[in-house]
Amino acid sequence: MKKLLFSMMILLPFALTGNDSVTNADLSRKLDLIIGKFGELENRVSKLENDNRKVKEEVREVAITAREAGVNLAIPDDPEKKNSFFKDLRNKLNSEGDKSSGPWARVESWSKIRKNQTRYQIRMLLGDPHEVNLSLSPRIDQVYKYSGDLNADGKQDLGIVNFYRDRVVSFTSPH
């Protein structure tokens, strides 16, 4: 910022004396334009500095929270270990998101499923399915699928509930 101000102060006299027939009104107008641009630049710089301050504060808060939780956020230097670290971190974050995405992710919900329950009862137990398919099997007309990475291994766990005439005929828990 100081360099910009210094360079403007040096170049301003040359810019102003370049024309022989410059009136005071022209000089005043040009000076007003330069001052206006300078003010805009100051506003942008102060906004960027403020944003930077906010980001640093958020990073500090996350580091404190991680330290309190006993999480080690040290990123390895070795490229192979670094890739593994980020892959594990991504899997854990995705898994936490899937675990909190509804009652279908809990073992207790799946243990309450019984044959002959209705679609409505299943939706009340597990929540809305992620996918609903029709089946070609003669004893299954509709299939509810619930999927997500529940154990942070990077693979999708799949829960399936099969219906025939609006009643559960079979199911497979993702656990």
Q: Characteristics of this structure?
A:
175 residues, alpha+beta, four-stranded antiparallel beta sheet
Structural class designation: alpha+beta
Helix content: 40-55%
Largest sheet: 4 strands, antiparallel
Q: Could you spell the SSE succession in H and E letters?
A: HHHHHEEEE
Shape designation: elongated
How many angstroms separate the termini?
A: 59 Å
Please work out how many helical segments DSSP would assign. Answer: 5
Q: What is the CA-based Rg, rounded?
A: 32 Å
Mean pLDDT: 81
Major sheet strand order = 1-2-3-4
Which strand-content bin applies to the residues?
A: 5-15%
Uncertain segments are none
- Count of β-strands: 4
Molecular structure report:
The chain is of the alpha+beta class and 175 residues long. The mean pLDDT is 81. It has helices at residues 2-17, 24-69, 79-99, 107-111, 119-126, and strands spanning 131-134, 142-148, 157-164, 167-172. The chain has a four-stranded antiparallel beta sheet.
Secondary structure: elements and pairs:
Elements: H1 2-17, H2 24-69, H3 79-99, H4 107-111, H5 119-126, E1 131-134, E2 142-148, E3 157-164, E4 167-172
Antiparallel strand pairs: 1-2, 2-3, 3-4
Write a brief structural summary.
The protein has helices at residues 2-17, 24-69, 79-99, 107-111, 119-126, and strands at residues 131-134, 142-148, 157-164, 167-172.
